[in-house]
Amino acid sequence: MLQVWTAMRHVYKGTLSLVSRTNGVHTSAVHGCPIPINDLHRVSPDRYTDSERDQRCKLAALYRLVHQEGWTQYIYNHITAQVGENHHFLLNPFGLLYEEVTASNLLKVNLEGEVIDPGTTLLGVNLAGYLLHSAIHAARPDVKCVVHIHSPYAAAVSTMKCGLLPMSQEALLLGEISYHPYSGILVDQTEREAIAKNLGTKNKVMMLQNHGMVACGETIEEAWLYAYGTIHACEIQVQAMGAGMDNLLLLEGKDLWERTAAVAGSEAVAHQTRTQLKWAPGQLEFEAMMRKLDRQGHQTGYPYQLPDVYATTSGQESK
Predict the structure, then answer these.
(1) I need a labelling partner for 258 at 20 to 30 A (CA). Which of 41, 50, 74, 79 fits?
(2) What's the pTM?
(3) Looking at the predicted structure, is the pLDDT value of residue 27 above 50?
(4) CA distances (Å), 205 to each of 77, 181, 212, 300, in order?
């Protein structure tokens, strides 16, 4: 048994070596410590702009959040974020667990699926991930981040003829929902147009029927907000439907949906702080989650807008 255990440890360490291309860089995972998200010290300082370095850290941190929420399926599913002005976007190397994704190992590809930057692994692009995300990024220039998840609750709602019902505030906050019918694993290039058409020009959430969901955002932070809200709305619906459809109170009317979403994003309920900072949609919530990850030792590298949330001992606001 000792020989078998020793062999298994060597295999695991070898896998981590392949991920990092450098023996020992990520072996802290063997001892139960999280792999650092911000590992950009491993690449040349002039390889990426400051903006891309921030975007890489944010996206890798989002992968880590999705992992912690339990929304992953091993190495499958994808989250992408656009970088620069050349329609390039970042995504996970196909073969890594979400907890292994870091700022340096993210791939950069163009809309044609060509690898612009391979990151720091020997792994490549998942065609299905490329097709879905590139279709959305190409059709919606306002969308800078796309989250694709098929967790059990999202997948369950995606199989329902009724779709995501207006039965909770969480559902109303998502605004109008788009739907895309299932036609097999997304590898057919002709489906790109259908994906873009069904998403529409304004909606931020699309249920992939018999499959899962997609959440979009103008920033990584906003995409996280919509993904989190969608999963919770799906969970509420699945659990409530156990009481029977006749016992459910549905919040009818498109006007109610629109008013709820509009009020939530209005200045009337804007985040109030003791500083003069303005928070974009999802930013305050995302910063809170980044503080949580950093406390856990994930080393996010996140560019905090408010690094210190506590007032000084003199009672003055933290700047």
Answers:
(1) 79
(2) 0.85
(3) no
(4) 16, 14, 11, 26
